[in-house]
Amino acid sequence: MYKLLLLLLMMGIWLWGGALQIDEEMAVQALFQGKHAVNRAVHAAAQQLDEAALAAGRFRIDEKRAAEEALRYLQANLRLDTNGQPLPGSYWRDRVDVLAFEIVNADRTFPYTYRNEQYGYEVTLQRPGVVMIIRLQYPRIFSVLEPIEWEVKGAAELVYG
Asked: Of 45, 75, 108, 118, whose CB neighbour count within 10 A is largest?
């Protein structure tokens, strides 16, 4: 009888451990998905040239188009609506917030070090670029893990030459 109870107890522990491992692996995959989405968004934004400045021989990012493109890419890659809420069928369950979005344009001296002390992010840009920080919350599959929330950061520079 005690062997049967021990077996049941061990099965419960193994199931809990398996659920923990699956949840941890899925959390890492979710973080990668969020990081890739931010990277794609900032790269798309950094490529939005200000055509008037370009005609004058200056490389400058069009701030309005860059912001629109960054949000469009973020929404498409994370399947979000215009308010940051997940669309039906999206992997995410909670609102995705853009915590910081900054365009570092040619009016700065390069190399330029962007610092955001609030979110603990620092990056050195060699040319005009875009910085974005978003907040993601992991949609847990099991209740084994505590809720996980990330501040996903990314930066990209204007590519020319």
From this structure: 45
